[in-house]
């Protein structure tokens, strides 16, 4: 049975703390091999008693003593090595993943996770508050916090109006979640035991099974480079483009075996391919995805220095993206992976590093209060734009409704305050075609903004490759700069891989749908998207069309009953605390939301 390890960084953090208590910290001898090691005996005890163990059986004094000792023990490199080895064995024995994945991922995550635990404020009273109870301490790692808004009155809100017929429009190419797999192998196993298949090490498909296709495969597989390049060749012919938004996630999902050199090679390769095919006259505005780093989701805030910082990644991004971005933008990229640029007179783009809001980013255990000061910086940019009469587009990878609660709440508050300035929000990450609504904070009934979430380039999981085109109110005085319409294009893998004798050497990327035609909308303003949700609630035919397009035209399971109500709830929820009210986050077996972390 295949075990998901997409979010093993979180599992690693939990297991590191758990396994440490069975390690004989006062001994300098290495762990004994075999099944008689104390770590594996502890695993067996957990297996035998299941839920019999409880931290609440421990006294507060003992708990704090353990964590105080642990704090000191983690300063020893030899102890870190022993923890990693025990962690890998525990992962294997609990069948969290294949043995190779368990051991490689614990080795990869070991240093960063332990360093984050060392520098966090979880020791010892916070940890014991979680494990023993609030009488033993106060847990405030993700405590509420607020950014400061300027004491400038919010301008009167003027509802947007559709542009006059014949008004200029901007045509924007949007790419996200490419996930190029350098080890993709045609004919390899599609249904392997590893978390990512269709690779050189997946094994060859037998006559009983269909092997990985030439252009890509439905399943737990990413894309070969030839498919990415074929996409870029096609979009180059489909121009002209006014500009491009590209919201990250370049590497494949083999998160247990990645190196910095590989991540940088993939960043450089894809960046240069985009530049090569789109040419020097098309500006690309990138954003940082959660897969760009290794370990995945590891994005230390700027107060982490040295080899564990993200400078190795940000510096390369600045170098490779320099043809598209001005010097000032490159400076903030090097500091924290975010930036702002004037796109045209009257329009500015802000590219956020959404890893600073991600619960999977274990560095936020150290301090989750507005990491890198990014939201306060955003407020300053928005206030300056409001003063100048600029409109602002925000791009990023992870949608704000999936962020940590306080970060998401503050972002929602900012969008409310600057609703007349922020005229577009564009994200990726989930790999499917959806959106999140923003409403007024007082009543949560007046729609005021939409976060559009575009489908992925990759097939992961069980999807057609795809990309998005946005049509914006264009460059003229008084333009709303809002989204008027969008199109989604796909590569139909069933057709591309299965010509009579061999794969199509020049496959077609075809229009899957145009939003205005599919849903009968004149514009895609917030009021239009809110009205669409209401229609989907009452008209199942419209909802099922949305569900088909949600998966880029390749649906494996129907969505009815709880699945439907959960998805509609998610569309309403641009803020995390609103999203938590959806059944999908309460263990519903028909969950439609699986974060592609």
From TrEMBL:
- MF-aspect GO terms: acid sphingomyelin phosphodiesterase activity; hydrolase activity, acting on glycosyl bonds; metal ion binding; phosphatidylcholine phospholipase C activity
Q: Which reaction does it catalyse?
A: N-(octadecanoyl)-sphing-4-enine-1-phosphocholine + H2O = N-octadecanoylsphing-4-enine + phosphocholine + H(+); a sphingomyelin + H2O = phosphocholine + an N-acylsphing-4-enine + H(+); a 1,2-diacyl-sn-glycero-3-phosphocholine + H2O = phosphocholine + a 1,2-diacyl-sn-glycerol + H(+); 1,2-dihexadecanoyl-sn-glycero-3-phosphocholine + H2O = 1,2-dihexadecanoyl-sn-glycerol + phosphocholine + H(+)
Q: Which is an annotated Pfam family here? A: Metallophos
Where is it located?
Lipid droplet; Lysosome; Secreted, Extracellular space
Q: Which Gene3D superfamilies match?
A: 3.60.21.10, Saposin-like
Recite the UniProt keywords alphabetically.
Answer: Disulfide bond, Glycoprotein, Glycosidase, Hydrolase, Lipid droplet, Lipid metabolism, Lysosome, Metal-binding, Phosphoprotein, Secreted, Signal, Zinc
Sites where the protein binds Zn(2+) 1: 177, 179, 249, 431
Give the GO biological process terms: ceramide biosynthetic process; sphingomyelin catabolic process
Q: Which CDD domains match?
A: MPP_ASMase (cd00842)
Q: Which InterPro entries match?
A: ASM_C, ASMase/PPN1_MPP, Calcineurin-like_PHP, Metallo-depent_PP-like, Saposin-like, SaposinB_dom, Sphingomy_PDE
One cellular-component annotation, GO? extracellular space
| EC class | hydrolase
Q: How is the cofactor bound?
A: Binds 2 Zn(2+) ions per subunit.
Q: Secreted among the record's keywords? A: yes
| Names of the cofactor(s) | Zn(2+)
Q: Which residues form the signal peptide?
A: 1-28
What EC numbers are recorded for this enzyme?
A: 3.1.4.12
Can you state the subunit structure given in the record?
Monomer. Interacts with SORT1; the interaction is required for SMPD1 targeting to lysosomes.
Per the record, the similarity remark reads:
Belongs to the acid sphingomyelinase family.
State what protein this is by name: Sphingomyelin phosphodiesterase
